[in-house]
Amino acid sequence: MSDNPVTLFSELGLAAPVLQAVEEAGYEAPSPIQAETIPPLLEGRDLLGQAQTGTGKTAAFALPLLSRIDLAQRRPQALVLTPTRELAIQVAEAIQAYARHLPGFHILPVYGGQGMGTQLRGLSRGVHLVVGTPGRVMDHLRRGTLVLDDLRTFVLDEADEMLRMGFIDDVEWILARAPQERQIALFSATMPKPIQQVARRHLHDPVEVKIASKTTTVETITQRYWQVSGVHKLDALTRILEVEPFDGMLIFVRTKTETVNLAEKLEARGFAAAALNGDMNQVQREQTVEKLKRGALDIVVGTDVVARGLDVERVSHVVNYDIPYDTEAYVHRIGRTGRAGRKGEAILFVAPRERRMLKTIERATRQPIAPMNLPSREAVTDKRVDRFKQLITETLESQELNFFEDLVDGYQEEHDVGLSEVAAALAYLVQRERPLEVKEQKAPVERESREAKRGGQKRPRFDREPDAGMQSYRIEVGREHGVQPKHVVGAIANEAGIDSRNIGRIQLYDTYSTVDLPEGLPIELQNHLKKVWVCGRRLNLTPTSEKGRKPKPRQGKTRP
């Protein structure tokens, strides 16, 4: 560790276009891993970094990589290897954002599950930086479509996760095909012996950086998450807003465009909402914050820039509508509530493929995040009815209604109807645009189940709401094809975004295998996994039976 810690990004020696992008993103002070890592990487030194996911290490290697890129040379100068496709996409998106002021810069993520054609076209056009998973990078190297002759820097991200998923031999195979004279940066949360051996074999006199993790979230903040499934995110958010008692709220999304889109949709649903993002000038931003402070606005939809320096006492809730890319951003976001000893609420939306990031946040903050159920249709209806009754009471107390009483009396006499019928008709007219009663909507999975039955292929029904327990699936690859459990774990964890700890028992047979996965796996994810290749075979993943029953072996060899 440095005796004189860097306190500003401007002191790190980054290229001017890269520094401009960092400052526009709202970052001023580098995190510890960034302050310790960026200077030696800029010097071309090898580096061995030990830090938890979510400490800002993506920027720690991305910023020096971009500062050293030769834009005139359209061949891969840097390769970032990640254990999962989700992480590959996240890293590529983050690097692209930091490179916004580098004209002509091209980055390409390569991973299984995406059409090879897209990646081949990208590589043939020329790229400066490649981010990929081991299996797909190996495919391109074998084909000759990815050439590492001009590689300057090799980044191995989450090396211990590579080891746990059975990819470490693949990593060594790729490293052996990189030029001898190249810089290597290896990052790992832990340093088991196999990772230490890889470092000894391939890194030359590396700078070693170790960042201790610590709890950074506020204990006065109650944290909950909702597993995105079945119900559309906007509808889920609306339910929460209608039932959850809140004063002021910040909702975080990833892009400036989405701040405007979501704010407009919430306004259309009757909420006092506005966007706040980096495209607004300082005066506009200050006006929006001032409206939130005085109650003219209840909801502000913003990007991570909002999380820095914003302190509004009214903010009782923070909603992470889009999960952040790292835990540092998460901590900054939810830190806008629960300030000065006040109670705060933080709600996180988590898609199935993002559960790994949820676990990362919990580990880094050392605080569990409890699952939450969406408010039921009945609860939303009750709240709307309560507000409607309150509106009637306030109107009776504050308005002169003689004209309208005469109007109703006259209507009764003319049409010979009861007062309750007239009142019911008027109530219906008032709420017609925004009904008080929330009608039940069929989830897409139910429609798909019916369509499957009509097509003559009866399948078990799966609910989108995940429950405890596992479901058994059959995959069309077995011992005869050379498969091992680690291959199945690696493919499913990589392609489905399921943490390998949540992949259950794997039973190998001669011509097929079975694997237990969390119950409630979305249909689209099942369909995607059908197309995944393992040991030269498509998985063709299918549910074996109703929950808890063993699959019936098909024709052919079935020796366990």
UniProtKB/TrEMBL annotation:
Its main location: cytoplasm. It comes from the Bacteria. The lineage of its organism: Bacteria, Pseudomonadati, Pseudomonadota, Gammaproteobacteria, Thiohalomonadales. Belongs to the DEAD box helicase family. DeaD/CsdA subfamily. This is ATP-dependent RNA helicase DeaD. A motif (Q motif) lies at residues 7-35. GO terms for biological process: cellular response to cold; ribosomal large subunit assembly; RNA catabolic process. It holds the Pfam family Helicase_C. Transmembrane segments: none annotated. It is an enzyme of class 3 (hydrolase). DEAD-box RNA helicase involved in various cellular processes at low temperature, including ribosome biogenesis, mRNA degradation and translation initiation. Signal peptide: none annotated. SUPFAM superfamilies: P-loop containing nucleoside triphosphate hydrolases. It catalyses: ATP + H2O = ADP + phosphate + H(+). Residues 233-380 form the Helicase C-terminal domain. One of its GO terms (molecular function) is ATP binding. Keywords: ATP-binding, Cytoplasm, Helicase, Hydrolase, Nucleotide-binding, RNA-binding, Stress response.
